[in-house]
Amino acid sequence: DTAVSQTPKYLVTQMGNDKSIKCEQNLGHDTMYWYKQDSKKFLKIMFSYNNKELIINETVPNRFSPKSPDKAHLNLHINSLELGDSAVYFCASSPSATEQFFGPGTRLTVL
Amino acid sequence: QQPVQSPQAVILREGEDAVINCSSSKALYSVHWYRQKHGEAPVFLMILLKGGEQKGHDKISASFNEKKQQSSLYLTASQLSYSGTYFCGTEPRYNQGGKLIFGQGTELSVKP
């Protein structure tokens, strides 16, 4: 009965590879987000979708591409991974731009 | 622009009180407060929407001064479970839609 789930929890990969992170929420929320938290704990929004429509697209390299197949899922695909992409990526959802419920996070390590 | 939190870190004994401040240079629509324990996800504490609004959640409360673009989180009679990093998330008045800009965090440690 997990509210917001992410897979995988850990991801270790080589520079230049392509990887995806999946997120699912069973709360019936309309809005979903991707955040990046770096090693200094700085939490920065990357993207937001409302009912499968992209509404927030921050200054993020275009190697990052979100996809929302339906309003319960929001995936993040990253091409040509770089060392600086190492971070914890959090997915979150909210009913209508109010309180946000975060997933457990995916710790990405690029070697 | 990222809001500024102060202090950056605070150490308390159980039962002591603490105040964490969050200050923005932009006009705000709302302020959110979250707590993140080590290795876990941020957890929502409360949202403040209107100027001067105050809210409480158990022994944790917060205020929002819309004119000064500042919010404060008050933790009274702290418990060990209060330990973690506290983040304020600000929603700019003219750029809403749920976009939160988080402060750098305040690390709170409560000792027995």
TL;DR of this structure?
Chain A has strands at residues 4-7, 10-13, 19-25, 31-37, 43-50, 53-57, 64-70, 73-78, 87-94, 101-102, 106-110. With 111 residues, chain A is mainly beta. The radius of gyration of chain A is 13 Å and the shape is globular.
What class would the helix/strand composition of chain B place it in?
Answer: mainly beta
Q: Hey, which two chains have the biggest interface? A: A-B, 24 and 20 residues
Share of helix of chain A, binned: under 10%
How many β strands of chain A by DSSP?
11
Per the principal axes of the C-alpha atoms, what is the gross shape of chain A? Answer: globular
Largest sheet of chain B: 6 strands, mixed
Rg measurement of chain A, Å? 13 Å
The low-confidence parts of chain B are: none
Strand content of chain A: over 45%
- Order of helical and strand elements of chain B: EEEEEEEEEEE
Oligomer: heterodimer
> What is the mean predicted local confidence, pLDDT of chain A?
93
**Number of helical elements of chain A:** 0
Strand content range of chain B? over 45%
- Total number of helices of chain B: 0
Please state the overall shape of chain B, judged from the principal axes of the Cα atoms.
Answer: globular
| Main beta-sheet annotation of chain A | 7 strands, mixed
Question: Percent of residues of chain B in helical segments?
Answer: under 10%
Report the order of strands and helices of chain A: EEEEEEEEEEE
Strand runs of chain B, count: 11
